[in-house]
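pasting for the record
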Amino acid sequence: MLLAGCGLRDVLPGPPVATGAARAAYDRAEAPRTADGAALTYLSAPSVPWPVLPIQVWGLRYALDIVLVSDHPDWVMHEYARVDVPGRSVWLAKDAGIDREQTITADLDDLASWVPEVPVRRRQRALVVTDVGTATHADLRFQYQNPLGQGTDVHYTGPLPTAPSQPRNGNTMGHSRASVAALLDLYRFRIGGSAQISIAGVERKLHRLANLVPEAYLLAQVQGGFAVADFCQGGDASGFVLKRPCAADDWPTEAEERWSVAQDGWVVRDGPVVSLRYHFVGGELDRAQAVQNGEGSPLVNVTFSPRLPDVRRRFDGDAHGAFVVDINGQPGHGVGRTLARWEGDAVVLSVMPTAPRWFADRPLESRITYAHDVSWVRTTR
């Protein structure tokens, strides 16, 4: 009753939404089908020779993550996340304004091209992190200028979470709704700790749920799912080059990526932080993954059942399908439906999450067009 009354049920993680036989049903290798179960009929040859990515998949591990909610009127959340890759660790400050969209502050020269498939606002600024914690206790201080130009000084102390969380299907709490359809694996999670927050020289207090529970969370998590996108693909000798953005005037990331195409159907972009892998069967997408550098297992594994249609070819009717998303090796954290059709000169792919509820309220739509031997994918929320 206390948890329900103070709103913690909207913060605490929940169970997976597809397990056992329900999850295994998505692994059937099936060709695209129409609503009545008939095989999809293609009407043309492929417009381009390379596989086209119809939807953007992403994932990222936060080895340590501090989430604070203060009483400041301009901000609904302050988050401080550590990303570990071979040879170094990177700290990100993520402040969410009243629109709940986050802006990343980090001391990285290549920030615009850092994990460019995640189109979250970002700014390169000094971020001073002082870590005097131990193996069992966090003691961290963050000093930087936030996106509104306010000097920010945050000091957090508290016990580190050590026991695995159960359940661990994390709630996104409404953040970054315009940019991503996100799922979380909160594999370490603790409420509490002590935080001193100063913004523009004024001390702020932690917000309390129902005036009872201070909103300070210490966790380790994997985030992933689908993202809005604007990119073009053009061919090269070994696969294709993907450029983002393609046409958008105001886009938070930029990159020119070389993707390889293998004989076994895998299409891969290696990255310094995250590598992306899509698997095609005759141009039809059945699986997409995100793998963090230095790790063997995927952070995110999306399985489409039946396969998405080959969007390079005209086809007759509507292609209906479903998908499941596994996060950090945890099966069935999210499920949904897909619908693909041709509308004039564009393929329109609707990706419609259905569970859990914080995933279900973030449908996406991709429009895929072709001109001058280039494919353009524009995905919106």
